[in-house]
């Protein structure tokens, strides 16, 4: 059992007891299942040609950055369930964890205090287009590091879970990354970005061309959910996925799943992953990660996508 280290500040390191993580995992799982049920109901209504169904779609940062009323409904359900969870982490009585969420609390700073990091529908474009590449991501970070994650992909009927030090699981079965070391035996994945500026597209297309022509990868994939693709690396469906432009809520839950599956996770500059830095390389092995890292450096991927280092 991990003992609680008491602190007097939201930015002082501490850890959670094993039984607290047990309860947190079960609550995160139930909240993600509730959101997934809302997504499934939407799918059914659309498949049945329900004339009263309305996504309530809007855009955010660009015309390609979509949001629907169901993103907001799913987030409301998840937050309502998670905010009931309170723990005495600093010796001053039970307090709820903080929240960092895509729709209602995207600008909250990430502190050491336990923080639920939630993407209610990761892959909204896929959801809008009735595709499979979208899901619910519920993560818990402590000391700014992921310690617990749940990712549910409703259309694939896949539920990924992990707690630090306990392994990663898909529908209750233990996960391991593929172990692939050779790019020409690997499936890589990159994403079409919201940023369609020439510099951003040149960087992405240049990297993709090198992967296919120079490294002769088995295949190159592009889906719409960061959490799904990271979890796909964890289970061996993909061998490497890397991207710049994603947010903490896209990464948090999936990162602990990756780590517990034995995958490599790093920043696109090669340093330790930072959830606030908007980029990630995930790979089955260091050898595949090095290929992605070299491409990110050569094409100045972070600068091209974000406009700065």
TrEMBL record:
Keywords: Hydrolase, Magnesium, Metal-binding. The keyword Membrane does not apply. GO terms for molecular function: inositol monophosphate 1-phosphatase activity; metal ion binding. Its EC number is 3.1.3.25. Its cofactor is Mg(2+). It holds the Pfam family Inositol_P. SUPFAM superfamilies: Carbohydrate phosphatase (SSF56655). It catalyses: a myo-inositol phosphate + H2O = myo-inositol + phosphate. GO terms for biological process: inositol biosynthetic process; phosphatidylinositol phosphate biosynthetic process; signal transduction. Pathway: Polyol metabolism; myo-inositol biosynthesis; myo-inositol from D-glucose 6-phosphate: step 2/2. Mg(2+) binds at residues 102, 119, 121-122, 250. Belongs to the inositol monophosphatase superfamily. This is Inositol-1-monophosphatase. It comes from Neobodo designis.
């Amino acid at each position: 059992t991990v003992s609680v280290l008491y602190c007097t500040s939201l930015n002082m390191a501490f850890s959670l007891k094993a039984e607290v993580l047990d309860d947190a995992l079960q609550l995160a799982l139930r909240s993600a299942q509730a959101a997934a049920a809302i997504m499934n109901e939407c799918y059914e209504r659309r498949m049945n040609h329900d004339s009263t169904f309305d996504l309530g779609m809007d855009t955010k940062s660009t015309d390609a950055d979509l949001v629907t009323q169901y993103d907001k409904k799913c987030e409301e359900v998840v937050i309502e369930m998670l905010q009931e969870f309170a723990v005495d982490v600093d010796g001053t009585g039970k307090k709820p964890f903080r929240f960092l969420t895509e729709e209602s609390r995207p600008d909250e700073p990430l502190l050491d205090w336990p923080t639920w990091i939630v993407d209610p529908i990761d892959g909204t474009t896929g959801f809008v287009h009735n595709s499979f590449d979208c899901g619910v991501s519920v993560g818990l970070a402590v000391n700014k590091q992921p310690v617990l994650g749940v990712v549910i992909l409703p259309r694939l009927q896949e539920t990924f879970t992990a707690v630090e030090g306990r392994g990663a699981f898909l529908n209750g079965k233990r996960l391991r990354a593929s172990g692939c070391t050779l790019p020409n035996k690997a499936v890589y994945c990159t994403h079409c970005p919201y940023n369609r500026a020439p510099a951003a597209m040149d960087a992405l297309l240049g990297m993709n061309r090198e992967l296919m022509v120079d490294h002769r990868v088995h295949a190159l994939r592009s889906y719409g959910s960061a959490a799904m693709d990271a979890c796909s690396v964890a289970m061996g469906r993909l061998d490497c996925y890397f991207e710049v432009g994603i947010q903490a809520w896209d990464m948090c839950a999936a990162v602990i799943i990756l780590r517990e599956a034995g995958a490599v996770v790093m920043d696109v500059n090669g340093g330790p992953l930072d959830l606030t830095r908007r980029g990630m390389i995930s790979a089955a092995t260091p050898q595949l990660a090095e290929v992605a890292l070299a491409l990110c450096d050569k094409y100045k991927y972070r600068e091209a996508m974000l406009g700065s280092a």
